[in-house]
């Protein structure tokens, strides 16, 4: 039996729309491979020059996983809206959205200057304010840097 995709699902092919979704998103979920088991965590993030920046504590399971296999897939979604075509028909209820998937290889860095740059990029995702970072704050995190090898996007029930 051949799969027929819902006509309401559209691929996003314009880089400008992919970047618009990344700019609008407030969080992301990074999928990793823990041996033969999927492992997914949510993060706040920053994105600049085709590179995704995440920050985390200097130790933890996610870093152990990434040191063994640094291939990741990161998911972003925006514009979610639950709606129905027929209010009393359960299967007519749907969720509008736009989403991006980003694939790449995670690089963990503990370099102070790189961390400072990344933290500024992360904060620029959420505010136009200029922030200062003290040394203990910078020293207490590592940065996960992911250069995007590939990005795809989809939208459902969106114009």
How are the elements arranged and paired?
Elements: E1 9-12, H1 15-24, E2 28-34, E3 37-43, E4 46-48, E5 51-57, H2 61-68, E6 71-84, E7 93-109, H3 112-124, H4 135-139, E8 141-156
Antiparallel strand pairs: 1-8, 2-3, 2-6, 4-5, 5-8, 6-7, 7-8
What would you note in describing this structure?
With 159 residues, the protein is α+β, with helices and mostly antiparallel strands. It has one domain (9-156): Electron Transport, Fmn-binding Protein, Chain A (Pnp Oxidase, Chain A), CATH 2.30.110.10. 23% of the residues lie in helices and 47% in strands. The chain contains 4 helices and 8 strands, in the order βαββββαββααβ. Strands 1, 2, 3, 4, 5, 6, 7 and 8 form an 8-stranded antiparallel sheet that branches. Strand 4 (46-48) and strand 5 form a beta hairpin. It starts with 8 loop residues before the first strand and ends with a strand.
Strand residue content: over 45%
CATH topology: Pnp Oxidase, Chain A
Domain unit count: 1
Using the CA coordinates, give the radius of gyration: 18 Å
Count the helices. How many?
Answer: 4
Shape: globular
How does the major sheet shape up?
A: 8 strands, antiparallel
Order of helices and strands: EHEEEEHEEHHE
Mean pLDDT: 93
Per DSSP E runs of 2 or more residues, the count of β-strands stands at 8
End-to-end distance, in Å?
30 Å
Mind telling me the CATH class?
Mainly Beta
The CATH homologous superfamily is named: Electron Transport, Fmn-binding Protein, Chain A
Helix content: 10-25%
CATH architecture: Roll
Unreliable stretches, pLDDT < 50, 5 or more residues? none
Structural class comes to alpha+beta
């Amino acid at each position: 039996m051949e799969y027929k995709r819902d006509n309401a699902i559209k691929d996003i092919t314009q880089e400008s729309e992919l970047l618009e979704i990344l700019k609008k998103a407030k969080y992301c979920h990074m999928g990793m491979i823990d041996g033969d088991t999927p492992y997914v965590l949510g993060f706040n993030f920053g994105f600049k020059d085709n590179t995704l920046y995440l920050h985390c504590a200097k130790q933890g399971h996610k870093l152990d996983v990434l040191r063994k296999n640094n291939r990741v897939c990161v998911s972003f979604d925006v514009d979610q809206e639950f709606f129905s075509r027929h209010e009393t028909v359960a299967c007519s209820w749907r969720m509008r959205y736009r989403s991006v998937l980003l694939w790449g290889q995670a690089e963990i860095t503990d370099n102070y200057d790189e961390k400072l740059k990344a933290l500024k990029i992360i904060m620029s995702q959420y505010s136009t304010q200029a922030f200062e970072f003290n040394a203990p704050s910078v020293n207490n995190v590592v940065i996960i840097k992911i250069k995007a090898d590939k990005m795809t996007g989809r939208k459902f029930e969106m114009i």
